[in-house]
Design goal:
With 110 residues, this protein is of the alpha+beta class. It has 2 helices and 3 strands; from the N terminus they run H-H-E-E-E. A hairpin with a 3-residue loop joins strand 2 and strand 3. The chain is globular. The chain starts with 10 loop residues before the first helix and ends with a strand.
């Protein structure tokens, strides 16, 4: 399928959006368990609102994991059955002094 540049999924732009939204939402705050539901919800909703404005030719799935830094490891993985020519994904890793965040965006062609 021939897509114009405006219609093509842009991994670099998606990662920039994710980074900006995490910084806006969490920034340099310390890990606070009581704020995790609010922060993760805000992050995924703001990312979704932003990327829909870029391109609405996809269905989006967004996942956000935030974990406190306490000498423990975080391992995540995902698997999908999809069209490698028309479906895409981006994963962005972020951290500050007290926590890690991993956000994944899956874009499935409509």
């Amino acid at each position: 399928m021939n897509e114009t540049l405006e219609e093509k999924y842009d991994d670099k732009q998606i990662k920039k959006i994710i980074s900006e939204i995490i910084e806006l939402t969490i920034g340099y705050q310390s890990y606070q368990a009581t704020k995790m539901n609010q922060w993760t919800s805000n992050i995924v909703e703001m990312i979704l609102d932003s990327i829909i404005q870029l391109n609405n030719k996809y269905k989006y799935i967004i996942q956000c994991v935030i974990m406190q830094k306490k000498n423990s490891a975080l391992h995540t993985t995902s698997s999908c059955f999809w069209d490698y020519d028309e479906d895409y994904s981006s994963t962005f890793h972020w951290e500050n002094q007290s926590m890690y965040a991993v956000v994944s965006v899956f874009a499935l062609k409509i």
